Amino acid sequence: MDQLRRKSFAELLGDDWEHGVEAAVDIALLGRYYERIADHAVSVANRVIFVVTGQQVARNDN
């Protein structure tokens, strides 16, 4: 998700973007919201794994 958000942000800043500032801001915010949702999903999955197995999952922060 992090890479996808960075890639879309780079696209928005490129010279090829012709959809206007409002659309660019909307896309940038949407990417941030999706990234946040993905972070929460990983957190929930790690908690479920802990409840089921009693083991904590090693974090993979990029």
Describe it.
By secondary structure, this protein is mostly helical. The chain has one domain. Helices cover 73% and strands 0% of the residues. It is built from two helices and no strands. Helix 1 (2-13) runs antiparallel to helix 2 (21-53).
Net shape: elongated
Q: How helix-rich are the residues, as a percent range?
A: over 70%
Please work out how many helical segments DSSP would assign: 2
Helix and strand succession?
HH
> Quick one: biggest sheet?
none
**Approximately what portion of the residues adopt beta-strand conformation?**
under 5%
Radius of gyration (Å): 16 Å
Count of DSSP strands: 0
What descriptive keywords fit this protein?
single chain; 62 residues; mainly alpha; 2 helices; 73% helix
Question: What topology emerges from the helices and strands here?
Answer:
Layout: H1 2-13, H2 21-53
Summarize the structure.
Helices cover 73% and strands 0% of the residues. The protein is mainly α and 62 residues long.
